[in-house]
Amino acid sequence: MGKKVFIDPGHGAHDSGAVGYGLYEKNLNLDVAKRLNTKLNNAGALVTMSRTSDTFDSLQTRVSKGASANADIFISVHANSNDNSSANGTETYYDKTYAAANSLKLAQNIQPKMVSALGTRDRGVKKQLASTSLNILRCRAFFFLETGFVSSPVDSNILKSATYKDRLASGISSGVSGYFR
């Protein structure tokens, strides 16, 4: 593949992210990101991660790390939560500004592969709603994954499984490879 990929597993250290059914988003994100790192490296990508352990960096620091990596794509790995425990599924947000066309294409490659890997409800590909400093990245494509709802008993059982996390990483890696073809 030979492409540069930056993976940002969201949250870390004192910032646990969403918590539910025995899952801490920060740990789930890091686990999935490490598995994805391995898969993408095996496919020939040059991967940099914003963190490889339970540490915390501000959003601006993570953005700076991503910019320094000069990545072709920036992957932000997260899990979702909702007060309504019946909310479930997988969704992908793409950058609606600088790299919108490439980001949309990448998100459209990734989303069905994640849904297929996990068997979760397909919540679709969506424009990034909130304006964040991630928009300043000058990479070819940016997307933000919500791998499932830690607040959902259905999704959390899936996301606890090492087998499913490995399948999820394989699905994301397959989508990234498909994007570069």
Can you walk through the features of this model?
There is one protein chain. This protein is α/β, with parallel strands linked by helices and 181 residues long. It has a single domain, classed as Zn-dependent exopeptidases (Aminopeptidase, 3-Layer(aba) Sandwich). Helices cover 41% and strands 23% of the residues. It has helices at 25-42, 59-68, 100-118, 153-160, 162-180, and strands spanning 4-9, 19-20, 23-24, 46-49, 73-80, 90-94, 122-127, 141-149. It has a six-stranded mixed beta sheet, covered by helices on one side. It is globular and about 40 Å long. The model has no long low-confidence stretch (mean pLDDT 91).
How would you summarize this macromolecular structure in one to three sentences?
Helices cover 41% and strands 23% of the residues. With 181 residues, the protein is α/β, with parallel strands linked by helices.
What are its keywords?
single chain, 181 residues, alpha/beta, Aminopeptidase, 5 helices, 8 strands, 41% helix, 23% strand
Write the layout of secondary structure elements.
Layout: E1 4-9, E2 19-20, E3 23-24, H1 25-42, E4 46-49, H2 59-68, E5 73-80, E6 90-94, H3 100-118, E7 122-127, E8 141-149, H4 153-160, H5 162-180
Parallel strand pairs: 1-4, 1-5, 5-8, 6-7
Antiparallel strand pairs: 2-3, 6-8
Helix pairs in contact: 1-5, 3-5
